[in-house]
Amino acid sequence: MHFSKVRNPIAVNVVCRLCMCGTESNNCLLLFSELVDKCIGSRIHIVMKTDKEIVGTLLGFDDFVNMVLEDVTEFEITPEGRRITKLDQILLNGNNITMLIPGGEGPDV
Amino acid sequence: MPSTHPQWRRRRLVTVAISEKPKLALLAVHRLHPSLSLPSNEGAFRSSKMSLRKQTPSDFLKQIIGRPVVVKLNSGVDYRGVLACLDGYMNIAIEQTEEYVNGQLKNKYGDAFLRGNNVLYISTQKRKV
């Protein structure tokens, strides 16, 4: 996701495009599930608890943040950055998900 | 019917939809008739966030039964076979299973049952490394 920046000698004002909250306001009024819902249809980069990352197009999710993805690439971080590309659809168990990065393209390997 | 009557307006738009730019027209029709399901044309709608292909995990699970799948466990072990059945806990029964450890075929089982807490992901199988 891109941030809009206004160059300002005193402070940099950044507005999050997802939740439209600025640095001034400090309250994001959206629920987490609403934020994730906004990502449906776009690429998302998921970091797991282990040294694994998954990049795919988000098709859907549920209350437990199990995710349905498409055109998925799986990255194994550390050894030599092994990569496995899966097409079609995947259901990723939400148990091990640590971080969601919308619009991300994954580690640079 | 006067041309400003809502029903008449809708009908006209549908007529335009058939003849002119199909993609834009379909979106316009959808706005007026949200109940109509749009054709699942993947190429056309992938970029727009109209959530046409939104699929929750439970829908996905219903859809993949009987298909060849790849199931990866937390331990990294891979199982490939035909999905016989599964449940909401991601407990899985697979037929004609092949077990891959570190990418190498280790075992073959006629039937395998996997406990759901170990499952990292379930993927349909159209794979290239």
From TrEMBL, chain A:
A Pfam family reported for this protein in Swiss-Prot or TrEMBL: LSM
GO biological process terms on file: mRNA splicing, via spliceosome
Keywords: Acetylation, mRNA processing, mRNA splicing, Nucleus, Ribonucleoprotein, RNA-binding, Spliceosome
InterPro entries: LSm5, LSM_dom_sf, Sm, Sm_dom_euk/arc
Superkingdom of origin organism: Eukaryota
Gene Ontology cellular-component terms listed: Lsm1-7-Pat1 complex; spliceosomal complex; U4/U6 x U5 tri-snRNP complex; U6 snRNP
Transmembrane regions listed in the UniProt entry: none
PANTHER family per UniProt: U6 SNRNA-ASSOCIATED PROTEIN, U6 SNRNA-ASSOCIATED SM-LIKE PROTEIN LSM5
Name of the protein this chain belongs to: U6 snRNA-associated Sm-like protein LSm5
Organism: Oryzias melastigma
Automatic annotation (TrEMBL), chain B:
UniProt-recorded Gene Ontology molecular function terms: RNA binding
GO BP, sorted A to Z: maturation of SSU-rRNA; mRNA splicing, via spliceosome; tRNA processing
Xref: Gene3D superfamilies: 2.30.30.100
Superkingdom in the source lineage: Eukaryota
Alphabetized Pfam families for the sequence: LSM (PF01423)
SMART domains xref list: Sm
Record text on subunit structure and interactions: Component of the precatalytic spliceosome (spliceosome B complex). Component of the U4/U6-U5 tri-snRNP complex, a building block of the precatalytic spliceosome (spliceosome B complex). The U4/U6-U5 tri-snRNP complex is composed of the U4, U6 and U5 snRNAs and at least PRPF3, PRPF4, PRPF6, PRPF8, PRPF31, SNRNP200, TXNL4A, SNRNP40, SNRPB, SNRPD1, SNRPD2, SNRPD3, SNRPE, SNRPF, SNRPG, DDX23, CD2BP2, PPIH, SNU13, EFTUD2, SART1 and USP39, plus LSM2, LSM3, LSM4, LSM5, LSM6, LSM7 and LSM8.
Function noted in UniProt: Plays a role in pre-mRNA splicing as component of the U4/U6-U5 tri-snRNP complex that is involved in spliceosome assembly, and as component of the precatalytic spliceosome (spliceosome B complex). The heptameric LSM2-8 complex binds specifically to the 3'-terminal U-tract of U6 snRNA. Component of LSm protein complexes, which are involved in RNA processing and may function in a chaperone-like manner, facilitating the efficient association of RNA processing factors with their substrates.
UniProt protein name: U6 snRNA-associated Sm-like protein LSm6
Organism: Oryzias melastigma
